[in-house]
Design goal:
By secondary structure, the chain is of the alpha+beta class. The protein is built from five helices and four strands. It is elongated, with a radius of gyration of 35 Å. The termini are far apart.
Length: 198
């Protein structure tokens, strides 16, 4: 009888033990976290924090680069403005020609527009010819800067070939940075401005 009673008590203890739930240490705010538990419970969060730090650092670099480019463009603008103020300007002719996507060759309509400009200023005392290239924002900033420069160079070459004095021509490339000032749609931003001051 005693053996049966003892066995019953032991079985109850075993069953009671099986019913006890082990607490998740990751959910226990009072748990003493070891490095193992920290890695186990928060390893993914810590990794994401490091990734976020790297992303922020990269963004800071890009912002610094953009600020530097903007400062450079601002200085160039001021230099041109200062040169213009020194000249005795009596008139101005200005045209804008457009380009196909990812192209810098002159279209027929662009050549026709430039021909009209050349005829209009042929007998003028030209003080300065400013040729400014733009590009839409698709592609990298470096690519767009180079593309807009090639567009401006081709326009300048066409003007010089058709009688505009080479020493009067100044070329600038604004890439995608200021393209939104000349239009909101991509076809409007693939352009070159030509300003003739006389």
């Amino acid at each position: 009888m005693k053996k049966i009673l003892i066995a019953g008590i032991a079985g109850s203890i075993v069953l009671a033990g099986c019913g006890v739930k082990t607490e998740d240490p990751c959910k226990d705010s009072k748990a003493a976290f070891s490095k193992y538990l920290i890695d186990k419970c928060y390893g993914d969060y810590m990794k994401q924090i490091e990734i976020n730090k790297e992303n922020i650092a990269n963004l800071d670099k890009r912002v610094s680069a953009l600020e530097s480019d903007v400062d450079s463009l601002r200085r160039e603008h001021e230099e041109i403005r200062a040169e213009i103020e020194k000249l005795k300007i009596t008139g101005k002719e200005q045209v804008r020609v457009y380009f196909d996507s990812n192209k810098f060759t002159l279209r027929d309509d662009a050549k026709a527009t430039l021909d009209e400009l050349i005829d209009a200023v042929r007998d003028k005392d030209i003080k300065k010819v400013i040729v400014v290239g733009y590009a839409d924002p698709r592609g990298t900033r470096g690519y767009n800067f180079e593309l807009s420069m090639k567009r401006a160079q081709n326009v300048a070459a066409y003007l010089i070939k058709n009688g505009i004095p080479v020493e009067k021509v100044r070329i600038a490339s604004y890439g995608e940075e200021l393209a939104n000032l000349i239009g909101e749609r991509h076809p409007e931003q693939r352009a070159v401005d030509v300003i003739v001051l006389y």
